[in-house]
Amino acid sequence: MRSKQEKKVKEEMGPFLEEGEEVRAVLIARPRGWTMSKGDDPLGVSEALGGRKQQKAHSAAEEAGIRLASPGGLVLTNKRLLTVQTGEALGMGIGGSVKDVLSAVPIADVDSMKVKRLLLGYVVTLTVRGSEFKLETNAAAGAKPMAEALERAKGEARS
Asked: Which of 46, 78, 81, 128 could pair with 64 in a Cys bridge, judged by C-beta atoms 3.0 to 4.6 Å apart?
């Protein structure tokens, strides 16, 4: 894990895990549109567009039984994909602690995870139980390692 906050979340997940469960990957992410909604646009257009994208991500995730948070992230274990709410990261490892697990789905229910580079970060398209939703992460986040770990975990679950 490249991100200090992702490492911190991994270290703090112990009390939230089931017996025999171990964290394989963590991805700090927000619903797609969050960055756009924080843009410096005097007319408020970027805020409105970003807000719509966030709502779309939340709605699609809820269809799959997933709750998203901002700030928050995904935690992949050998058994499940969890969404967590975190505190705001302040940098240098300060802040960003796990506050709560919002939802959890078995790995078998995760259809796919696609990662696409976009400017200074990544867009992550997650499909769970047939419902597709998008998240965004910064460049330091472990988006590609998370997608790779998910594919390995899905393969192990099939075995």
From this structure: 128
Cα Rg, the chain, nearest whole Å: 15
Cα 76 to Cα 55, 131, 152, distances in angstroms: 24, 18, 11
pTM: 0.83
Residue entry with tokens 């770990």: 149
> Is 129 within 8 Å of 109 (Cβ atoms)?
yes
Cβ-in-10-Å burial (0-12, 13-18, 19+) of 114 comes to middle
What are the pLDDT digits (tens) for 85-130? 988 776 655 667 889 999 999 999 999 999 998 877 899 999 999 9
Q: How far apart are CA 33 and CA 14, in angstroms?
A: 31
Token duo for residue 142: 């472990």
Give the Cα separation of 58 and 29 in Å (integer): 13
Spell out the domains of the chain, with CATH numbers in brackets.
Answer: 4-158 (2.30.29.30)
Q: How far apart are CA 50 and CA 107, in angstroms?
A: 29
